[in-house]
């Protein structure tokens, strides 16, 4: 059991490093991909212990990330940002909930990715707004 957790932690650490390499992208398709990847990680984590009372909480955070990806595809960056921030709040709560103790350490790595992605989307939205103001 501990070996599986270590492998999962190592893979998430690797993912975080890879994710950091994409920081400050101006490509919305990359942001969409990151939303989908994070949603998939959360879904996978929830399925590792489907009977755990916290798996539903992980699925909620995953849903927020899926919605964010959809909003980004439609060019609704402010709404995508809101969904990402909701996912962040959910992950923050999961990391402190007593009944989510099993997932707390794993969620912290994913939350770091979510925070980074939220900043990128907010920056992208700010650049988009600035360009629109200059055109108008």
CATH arch. level architecture: Up-down Bundle
Here the CATH topology equals Ferritin
Total strands: 0
Main beta sheet: strand number and arrangement? none
Overall body shape: elongated
Keywords: Signal
Signal peptide: 1-23
Question: Can you summarize this structure?
Answer:
The protein has helices at 2-21, 28-48, 55-73, 77-94, 104-135. It is an all-alpha fold and 136 residues long. The chain has one domain (27-135): Ferritin, CATH 1.20.1260.
How would you characterize this protein structure?
There is one protein chain. This protein is mostly helical and 136 residues long. The chain has one domain (27-135): Ferritin, CATH 1.20.1260. 81% of the residues lie in helices and 0% in strands. It has helices at residues 2-21, 28-48, 55-73, 77-94, 104-135. The longest helix is centred in the last third of the chain and has 32 residues, at 104-135. The N and C termini lie far apart (58 Å). The model is unreliable at 17-24 (pLDDT under 50). Residues 1-23 form the signal peptide.
Topology, please?
Elements: H1 2-21, H2 28-48, H3 55-73, H4 77-94, H5 104-135
Any key phrases for this structure?
mainly alpha, 136 residues, 81% helix
């Amino acid at each position: 059991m501990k070996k599986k957790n270590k492998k999962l932690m190592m893979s998430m650490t690797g993912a975080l490093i890879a994710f950091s390499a994409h920081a400050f992208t101006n490509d919305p398709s990359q942001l969409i991909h990151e939303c989908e990847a994070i949603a998939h990680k959360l879904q996978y984590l929830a399925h590792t212990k489907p009977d755990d009372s916290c798996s539903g909480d992980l699925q909620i955070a995953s849903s927020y990330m899926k919605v964010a990806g959809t909003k980004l595809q439609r060019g609704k960056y402010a709404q995508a940002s809101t969904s990402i921030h909701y996912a962040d709040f959910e992950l923050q709560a999961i990391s402190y909930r007593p009944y989510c103790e099993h997932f707390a350490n794993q969620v912290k790595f994913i939350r770091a990715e979510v925070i980074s992605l939220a900043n990128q989307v907010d920056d992208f939205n700010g650049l988009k707004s600035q360009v629109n103001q200059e055109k108008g």
